[in-house]
Amino acid sequence: MTHFLDIHKTSPDDLRGIIDQAAAMKSARAGRPKGMADDEQPLAGRMVALIFEKPSTRTRVSFDVGVRQMGGETMVLSGKDMQLGHGETIADTARVMSRYVDLIMIRTFDETVLTEMAEYSDVPVINGLTDRTHPCQIMADILTYEEHRGPIRGKKVVWTGDGNNVCASFLHAAGQFGFDLTFTGPSQLDPEEEFVGLARRAGSTITIERDPAKAVAGADLIVADTWVSMHDSQSSKERRHNMLRPYQVNDALMAHAKPDALFMHCLPAHREEEVTSAVMDGPQSVIFDEAENRLHAQKAVMRWCLGV
Ligand code: CP
Q1: Which of 294, 296, 303, 305 is labelled catalytic?
Q2: Hey, which of 52, 59, 144, 290 would you mutate to test ligand 1's pocket, going by the most ligand atoms within 8 Å of its Cβ?
Q3: Which residues contact 128 (CB under 8 A, 6 or more apart)?
Q4: Helix (H) or strand (E) holding 263
Q5: C-alpha 137 – ligand 1 centre gap (Å)
Q6: Which protein residue has the closest C-alpha to ligand 1 atom 3?
Q7: Residue limits of the Aspartate/ornithine carbamoyltransferase Asp/Orn-binding domain (predicted)?
Q8: Domain 136-290 CATH superfamily
Q9: In tens digits, what is the pLDDT along the chain, a chain of 308 residues?
Q10: Which of 137, 99, 142 is nearest to 121 (CA)?
Q11: Nearest C-alpha to atom 1 of ligand 1 is from which residue?
Protein backbone atom coordinates (compact mmCIF):
# COMPACT_ATOMS: atom_id res chain seq x y z
CA MET A 1 0.00 0.00 0.00
CA THR A 2 1.48 3.37 -1.00
CA HIS A 3 0.43 5.87 1.65
CA PHE A 4 1.61 9.48 1.72
CA LEU A 5 1.92 9.97 5.46
CA ASP A 6 5.01 12.14 5.85
CA ILE A 7 7.87 13.48 3.77
CA HIS A 8 10.54 11.57 5.72
CA LYS A 9 8.60 8.35 5.13
CA THR A 10 8.78 8.80 1.34
CA SER A 11 12.04 8.20 -0.52
CA PRO A 12 13.93 11.14 -2.04
CA ASP A 13 13.54 9.58 -5.51
CA ASP A 14 9.78 9.25 -5.11
CA LEU A 15 9.51 12.80 -3.74
CA ARG A 16 11.47 14.11 -6.73
CA GLY A 17 9.23 12.13 -9.08
CA ILE A 18 6.13 13.66 -7.47
CA ILE A 19 7.51 17.21 -7.80
CA ASP A 20 8.51 16.64 -11.43
CA GLN A 21 5.11 15.19 -12.28
CA ALA A 22 3.35 18.08 -10.54
CA ALA A 23 5.36 20.58 -12.59
CA ALA A 24 4.61 18.71 -15.83
CA MET A 25 0.89 18.45 -15.08
CA LYS A 26 0.73 22.15 -14.15
CA SER A 27 2.40 23.17 -17.37
CA ALA A 28 0.20 20.83 -19.45
CA ARG A 29 -2.94 22.64 -18.33
CA ALA A 30 -1.60 26.20 -18.40
CA GLY A 31 -4.29 28.73 -19.28
CA ARG A 32 -7.21 26.31 -19.09
CA PRO A 33 -10.38 27.09 -17.15
CA LYS A 34 -10.14 25.58 -13.66
CA GLY A 35 -13.12 23.32 -14.25
CA MET A 36 -11.81 21.85 -17.49
CA ALA A 37 -10.58 18.26 -17.23
CA ASP A 38 -6.95 17.35 -17.84
CA ASP A 39 -6.13 15.61 -21.11
CA GLU A 40 -5.08 12.58 -19.06
CA GLN A 41 -7.78 11.10 -16.81
CA PRO A 42 -5.85 8.80 -14.47
CA LEU A 43 -8.52 8.91 -11.76
CA ALA A 44 -11.43 8.03 -14.06
CA GLY A 45 -13.75 5.68 -12.20
CA ARG A 46 -12.03 6.36 -8.85
CA MET A 47 -13.75 7.64 -5.72
CA VAL A 48 -11.76 9.70 -3.21
CA ALA A 49 -12.89 10.37 0.37
CA LEU A 50 -11.76 13.69 1.87
CA ILE A 51 -12.19 13.57 5.66
CA PHE A 52 -11.88 16.76 7.71
CA GLU A 53 -11.81 16.82 11.50
CA LYS A 54 -10.53 20.42 11.37
CA PRO A 55 -11.44 23.44 9.23
CA SER A 56 -9.83 23.93 5.83
CA THR A 57 -10.06 26.12 2.75
CA ARG A 58 -7.01 25.26 0.64
CA THR A 59 -6.73 21.55 1.39
CA ARG A 60 -10.41 20.90 0.89
CA VAL A 61 -10.84 22.84 -2.34
CA SER A 62 -7.51 21.87 -3.92
CA PHE A 63 -8.00 18.13 -3.33
CA ASP A 64 -11.60 18.27 -4.55
CA VAL A 65 -10.72 20.20 -7.73
CA GLY A 66 -7.62 18.07 -8.32
CA VAL A 67 -9.55 14.80 -8.24
CA ARG A 68 -12.17 16.17 -10.63
CA GLN A 69 -9.57 17.50 -13.07
CA MET A 70 -8.13 13.99 -13.22
CA GLY A 71 -11.53 12.41 -13.90
CA GLY A 72 -12.33 11.08 -10.42
CA GLU A 73 -15.11 11.78 -7.96
CA THR A 74 -14.95 12.95 -4.35
CA MET A 75 -16.97 12.77 -1.19
CA VAL A 76 -16.12 15.41 1.40
CA LEU A 77 -16.82 14.18 4.93
CA SER A 78 -16.70 16.04 8.20
CA GLY A 79 -15.28 14.00 11.05
CA LYS A 80 -18.09 15.06 13.35
CA ASP A 81 -20.74 13.76 10.95
CA MET A 82 -19.09 10.32 10.82
CA GLN A 83 -19.04 7.62 13.47
CA LEU A 84 -15.29 8.42 13.75
CA GLY A 85 -15.91 10.71 16.68
CA HIS A 86 -18.61 8.59 18.29
CA GLY A 87 -16.95 5.42 19.50
CA GLU A 88 -16.27 3.40 16.32
CA THR A 89 -12.59 2.56 16.20
CA ILE A 90 -10.33 4.10 13.60
CA ALA A 91 -9.39 0.57 12.50
CA ASP A 92 -13.02 -0.37 11.81
CA THR A 93 -13.64 2.94 10.05
CA ALA A 94 -10.60 2.31 7.84
CA ARG A 95 -11.76 -1.21 6.96
CA VAL A 96 -15.26 0.03 6.08
CA MET A 97 -14.09 3.05 4.07
CA SER A 98 -11.76 0.78 2.08
CA ARG A 99 -14.81 -1.14 0.81
CA TYR A 100 -16.29 2.04 -0.70
CA VAL A 101 -13.49 4.29 -1.92
CA ASP A 102 -10.16 4.06 -3.75
CA LEU A 103 -8.22 6.68 -1.79
CA ILE A 104 -8.59 8.46 1.57
CA MET A 105 -7.27 11.91 2.48
CA ILE A 106 -7.66 12.79 6.15
CA ARG A 107 -7.05 15.98 8.16
CA THR A 108 -7.07 15.15 11.84
CA PHE A 109 -5.72 16.24 15.22
CA ASP A 110 -3.82 13.27 16.62
CA GLU A 111 -1.20 11.67 14.38
CA THR A 112 -2.21 8.22 15.64
CA VAL A 113 -5.60 8.59 13.91
CA LEU A 114 -3.74 8.96 10.61
CA THR A 115 -1.31 6.10 11.24
CA GLU A 116 -4.05 3.76 12.46
CA MET A 117 -6.19 4.64 9.46
CA ALA A 118 -3.25 3.77 7.20
CA GLU A 119 -2.49 0.55 9.07
CA TYR A 120 -5.99 -0.85 8.65
CA SER A 121 -6.94 0.66 5.30
CA ASP A 122 -6.81 -1.43 2.12
CA VAL A 123 -6.52 1.76 0.06
CA PRO A 124 -3.87 4.52 0.17
CA VAL A 125 -4.16 7.20 2.86
CA ILE A 126 -2.86 10.77 2.50
CA ASN A 127 -1.98 13.08 5.40
CA GLY A 128 -3.92 16.33 4.93
CA LEU A 129 -2.45 17.73 8.19
CA THR A 130 -2.16 16.52 11.75
CA ASP A 131 -1.09 18.41 14.86
CA ARG A 132 2.44 17.15 14.12
CA THR A 133 3.01 17.48 10.36
CA HIS A 134 1.66 18.91 7.07
CA PRO A 135 3.50 17.17 4.21
CA CYS A 136 1.21 18.19 1.31
CA GLN A 137 1.87 21.85 2.11
CA ILE A 138 5.61 21.40 1.90
CA MET A 139 5.41 19.50 -1.40
CA ALA A 140 3.61 22.55 -2.79
CA ASP A 141 6.27 24.81 -1.25
CA ILE A 142 9.14 22.87 -2.85
CA LEU A 143 7.36 23.04 -6.22
CA THR A 144 6.87 26.80 -5.73
CA TYR A 145 10.47 27.48 -4.74
CA GLU A 146 11.86 25.52 -7.67
CA GLU A 147 9.62 27.12 -10.27
CA HIS A 148 10.84 30.56 -9.14
CA ARG A 149 14.47 29.88 -8.30
CA GLY A 150 15.52 26.42 -9.55
CA PRO A 151 16.70 23.49 -7.42
CA ILE A 152 16.25 23.89 -3.67
CA ARG A 153 19.20 21.58 -2.92
CA GLY A 154 21.89 23.48 -0.99
CA LYS A 155 19.69 26.54 -0.32
CA LYS A 156 19.15 28.20 3.05
CA VAL A 157 15.56 28.21 4.32
CA VAL A 158 14.70 30.19 7.46
CA TRP A 159 11.63 29.29 9.49
CA THR A 160 10.44 32.12 11.73
CA GLY A 161 8.19 31.89 14.81
CA ASP A 162 6.60 28.70 16.09
CA GLY A 163 8.26 25.34 15.42
CA ASN A 164 4.87 23.84 14.58
CA ASN A 165 3.55 21.06 12.32
CA VAL A 166 4.36 22.92 9.09
CA CYS A 167 7.88 23.60 10.35
CA ALA A 168 8.18 19.88 11.13
CA SER A 169 7.43 18.95 7.52
CA PHE A 170 9.95 21.58 6.33
CA LEU A 171 12.55 19.83 8.53
CA HIS A 172 11.64 16.49 6.95
CA ALA A 173 11.97 18.06 3.50
CA ALA A 174 15.38 19.55 4.38
CA GLY A 175 16.69 16.04 4.91
CA GLN A 176 15.03 14.53 1.84
CA PHE A 177 15.62 17.37 -0.66
CA GLY A 178 19.05 18.39 0.67
CA PHE A 179 18.64 21.99 1.85
CA ASP A 180 19.63 23.67 5.12
CA LEU A 181 17.15 25.11 7.58
CA THR A 182 17.56 27.73 10.28
CA PHE A 183 14.85 28.02 12.92
CA THR A 184 14.44 31.38 14.61
CA GLY A 185 11.92 31.67 17.41
CA PRO A 186 11.61 31.52 21.20
CA SER A 187 13.05 28.41 22.88
CA GLN A 188 9.61 27.48 24.25
CA LEU A 189 8.45 26.93 20.66
CA ASP A 190 11.44 25.07 19.24
CA PRO A 191 10.66 22.34 16.70
CA GLU A 192 10.64 18.76 17.97
CA GLU A 193 14.15 17.46 18.66
CA GLU A 194 13.29 14.19 16.94
CA PHE A 195 12.67 16.01 13.66
CA VAL A 196 15.76 18.22 14.01
CA GLY A 197 17.80 15.05 14.57
CA LEU A 198 16.27 13.33 11.53
CA ALA A 199 17.22 16.22 9.24
CA ARG A 200 20.75 16.38 10.65
CA ARG A 201 21.27 12.65 10.25
CA ALA A 202 20.14 13.00 6.62
CA GLY A 203 22.99 15.49 6.11
CA SER A 204 21.26 18.88 6.39
CA THR A 205 22.62 21.71 8.48
CA ILE A 206 19.90 22.64 10.97
CA THR A 207 20.61 25.79 12.99
CA ILE A 208 18.70 27.28 15.92
CA GLU A 209 19.30 31.05 16.08
CA ARG A 210 17.34 33.23 18.54
CA ASP A 211 18.26 36.51 16.83
CA PRO A 212 15.96 36.81 13.77
CA ALA A 213 18.21 39.30 11.94
CA LYS A 214 21.22 36.96 12.27
CA ALA A 215 19.05 33.98 11.31
CA VAL A 216 17.91 35.41 7.98
CA ALA A 217 21.37 36.60 6.89
CA GLY A 218 22.07 34.93 3.54
CA ALA A 219 18.62 33.29 3.40
CA ASP A 220 17.19 32.12 0.07
CA LEU A 221 13.71 31.60 1.50
CA ILE A 222 11.97 32.96 4.60
CA VAL A 223 8.86 31.22 5.89
CA ALA A 224 6.32 32.35 8.48
CA ASP A 225 3.18 30.76 9.87
CA THR A 226 0.38 31.76 12.19
CA TRP A 227 1.36 32.28 15.83
CA VAL A 228 -1.66 30.35 17.14
CA SER A 229 -2.27 27.10 15.24
CA MET A 230 -5.62 25.28 15.07
CA HIS A 231 -4.52 22.90 17.83
CA ASP A 232 -3.31 25.69 20.20
CA SER A 233 -5.69 26.94 22.88
CA GLN A 234 -7.04 30.45 22.40
CA SER A 235 -6.18 31.11 26.08
CA SER A 236 -2.49 30.91 25.12
CA LYS A 237 -2.89 33.61 22.46
CA GLU A 238 -1.60 36.61 24.42
CA ARG A 239 1.38 34.71 25.84
CA ARG A 240 2.32 33.37 22.40
CA HIS A 241 1.98 36.77 20.76
CA ASN A 242 4.26 38.33 23.38
CA MET A 243 6.90 35.65 22.79
CA LEU A 244 6.64 35.76 19.00
CA ARG A 245 6.39 39.50 18.30
CA PRO A 246 10.18 39.89 17.77
CA TYR A 247 9.95 37.30 14.99
CA GLN A 248 7.47 39.16 12.78
CA VAL A 249 8.54 39.10 9.13
CA ASN A 250 8.59 42.70 7.96
CA ASP A 251 10.59 44.78 5.47
CA ALA A 252 13.36 45.38 8.01
CA LEU A 253 13.82 41.65 8.57
CA MET A 254 13.61 40.80 4.84
CA ALA A 255 16.41 43.32 4.21
CA HIS A 256 18.85 41.02 6.07
CA ALA A 257 18.22 38.14 3.62
CA LYS A 258 19.60 37.76 0.10
CA PRO A 259 18.11 40.41 -2.23
CA ASP A 260 16.34 37.71 -4.24
CA ALA A 261 15.05 35.76 -1.20
CA LEU A 262 11.47 34.55 -1.46
CA PHE A 263 8.81 34.79 1.24
CA MET A 264 6.33 31.95 1.89
CA HIS A 265 3.37 31.42 4.20
CA CYS A 266 1.04 28.42 3.97
CA LEU A 267 -1.99 30.61 4.78
CA PRO A 268 -4.30 31.52 6.37
CA ALA A 269 -2.20 34.47 7.56
CA HIS A 270 -2.88 37.03 10.24
CA ARG A 271 -1.78 40.23 8.57
CA GLU A 272 0.37 42.54 10.74
CA GLU A 273 0.97 39.72 13.23
CA GLU A 274 3.45 37.09 12.00
CA VAL A 275 3.96 39.03 8.74
CA THR A 276 3.18 42.52 7.49
CA SER A 277 0.96 43.18 4.49
CA ALA A 278 3.92 44.97 2.90
CA VAL A 279 5.83 41.67 2.79
CA MET A 280 2.80 39.48 1.96
CA ASP A 281 1.87 41.66 -1.00
CA GLY A 282 5.45 42.62 -1.89
CA PRO A 283 7.64 41.46 -4.79
CA GLN A 284 9.39 38.67 -2.84
CA SER A 285 6.17 37.00 -1.75
CA VAL A 286 4.99 33.84 -3.54
CA ILE A 287 2.16 33.00 -1.14
CA PHE A 288 -0.57 32.67 -3.75
CA ASP A 289 1.62 30.54 -5.99
CA GLU A 290 2.05 28.25 -2.96
CA ALA A 291 -1.72 28.09 -2.55
CA GLU A 292 -2.19 27.26 -6.24
CA ASN A 293 0.53 24.65 -6.10
CA ARG A 294 -1.33 22.70 -3.43
CA LEU A 295 -3.55 21.64 -6.34
CA HIS A 296 -0.74 20.53 -8.65
CA ALA A 297 1.42 18.89 -5.98
CA GLN A 298 -1.48 16.92 -4.50
CA LYS A 299 -2.60 15.70 -7.93
CA ALA A 300 0.86 14.20 -8.33
CA VAL A 301 0.75 12.77 -4.79
CA MET A 302 -2.59 11.07 -5.55
CA ARG A 303 -1.24 9.58 -8.80
CA TRP A 304 1.82 8.29 -6.94
CA CYS A 305 -0.36 6.71 -4.24
CA LEU A 306 -2.56 4.99 -6.81
CA GLY A 307 0.27 4.14 -9.21
CA VAL A 308 -1.61 5.71 -12.13
N1 CP B 1 -2.46 25.79 4.31
C2 CP B 1 -3.55 25.03 4.57
O3 CP B 1 -3.46 23.82 4.83
O4 CP B 1 -4.72 25.70 4.43
P5 CP B 1 -6.15 25.17 4.91
O6 CP B 1 -6.07 25.02 6.42
O7 CP B 1 -7.12 26.25 4.50
O8 CP B 1 -6.43 23.86 4.25
Answers
A1: 294
A2: 59
A3: 50, 51, 52, 56, 59, 63, 105, 106, 107, 136
A4: strand 262-265
A5: 8
A6: 59
A7: 154-304
A8: Aspartate/ornithine carbamoyltransferase (3.40.50.1370)
A9: 899 999 999 999 999 999 999 999 999 999 999 999 999 999 999 999 999 999 999 999 999 999 999 999 999 999 888 877 678 899 999 999 999 999 999 999 999 999 999 999 999 999 999 999 999 999 999 999 999 999 999 999 999 999 999 999 999 999 999 999 999 999 999 999 999 999 999 999 999 999 999 999 999 999 999 998 777 778 888 889 999 999 999 999 999 999 999 999 999 999 999 999 999 999 999 999 999 999 999 999 999 999 99
A10: 99
A11: 266
- Can 225 be counted among the known catalytic residues? yes
Q: What atom in ligand 1 is closest to the CA of residue 129?
A: 3
Domain limits of the chain?
A: 7-133+293-306, 136-290
| Residues near 232 by beta carbon (within 8 Å), at least 6 away in sequence | 240
Residue nearest atom 4 in ligand 1 by C-alpha distance = 58
Interatomic CA distance for residues 160 and 257, integer angstroms: 13
Pick the CATH number of 7-133+293-306 from 3.40.50.720, 3.40.50.1370, 2.60.120.10, 3.40.50.300: 3.40.50.1370
Which residues partner with 249 through β-bridges?
275
134 annotated ligand-binding residue: yes
Name, in order, each residue with C-beta under 8 angstroms of 246's C-beta and a sequence gap of 6 or more.
212
Ligand 1 geometric centre to CA of 164 (Å): 14
pTM of the predicted model as reported, rounded to 2 decimal places: 0.96
